[in-house]
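step=predict obj=Tripartite tricarboxylate transporter TctB family n=159
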Amino acid sequence: MAIATRQHRSLSRRNVTFAAIFVGFSVVVGIYAYETLKIGTAAQMGAGFFPVMLSIVLGFLSLAVAFTPIPAGAQPLRFAPVKASILIMGSPLVFAASIQSLGLVAAVALTIFFSSFASRFATLRQSVLLSVGFTVFCVAVFHYLLNLPIALWGDIITG
């Protein structure tokens, strides 16, 4: 008769540490947005609605990560390559620097194209397709469905 072996699973100090950092971040951002921005309602969202909701979701996801056990024999964390780290951390800067002057379409396309090369497996074709697809999605959601007052084309493009 075969005896089933059970994999030993335990809470990870790494997961708990990262979760504590993200819970702290979500609390600080949530409180700041709640106290400084108009929240509004789900039907008429204010500027603070999305940051507050996002911080709540981040907090709950972080707590879920804290209590997710890591299987025995799991690979240890490794540092990301410097190139990938720079591209991912620089992407919000690319978006922020280009949204006003280029507009939503070009800013999203440029940001996604830029950040896609953080993957060592990215090809030019895949990056272009990802940029186009995500740009169409963002324009549809933010401009047409949510009617956010974001110009599709910026000052440089429209003249």
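step=describe
Confidence is low (pLDDT under 50) at residues 4-8.
step=end
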